[in-house]
Amino acid sequence: MEYTPVFDLFHIAILVGSGFLGAFIDSAVGGGGLITVPALMTMGMPIPMLLGTNKFAASCGAITSFLSFWRAGSIDKSAFPLMILSFLGSMAGVGCVYLLPEKILKSIIVFALVCVAIYTFFRKDWGDRKLVKTSLSMKAIIGAIFMALALGFYDGFFGPGTGSFLIFGFLFLGFDFVTAAGNAKALNFASNIAGFLTFCLGGSVIWGYGLLMAPAMILGAFCGSRLAIKKGAAYVRPLFLIVTTILIGKQVWEIFVK
After folding, report:
1. N or C: which terminal CB in the chain sees fewer CB atoms within 10 Å?
2. How many CB atoms are closer than 10 A to CB 81?
3. What letter would DSSP give residue 30?
4. What is the pLDDT of residues 41-70, one digit of tens each?
5. Helices (H), ranges, 42-176
């Protein structure tokens, strides 16, 4: 694959602006790819390079979010061993061909996202209270292991909605919204790093673009995660529902309109 990067002022502004905004949203509830991927598409690069470059920049934002939530004490200790599984799952996902036709896969994702949005909307008090998790039941541990592997794999080879699914999973295990968001960022950081390394080995990263986006994504992730930690469920819950709804709309558009 041959591609010549473009570094005029207009495209630099797109990269920096989309990087900040994407990381700001992604730091709390995921979905930053809704902004950064279309921005990178305007550069006209091959899809593998687009995905690899996005993974590099997203990894920079993800580590900032992870550290912010960790320092604030908003990541439960149970998330750390799950990061290893998320990492391995993502590497397998990047290196694997699609197991299902893309249109069928998108239909499944739309259905799952709709269920997540409806359930969260009607559970008005869900994730509002801080729960102290001293231990998880065996059933919950098995579910968490499956979630880490499956969503790590999914993030590696497809991606949209990973952050939302992770937050929903941790909410289902009984965590409040902010801790669920922190745990989700821990696993998402691991899957992003694994995806980036795999794309990097394949030579699918445009370093110039990635290095332009990285500082903006670090700043966006810092601001977004700090706001999420400070405002709590009152901020994270509505944003979670908004991003999930946009994800549903995007997938429906691509299935029935494009």
Report:
1. C
2. 12
3. S
4. 888 888 778 888 988 998 999 999 999 999
5. 47-71, 79-94, 102-122, 138-157, 162-172
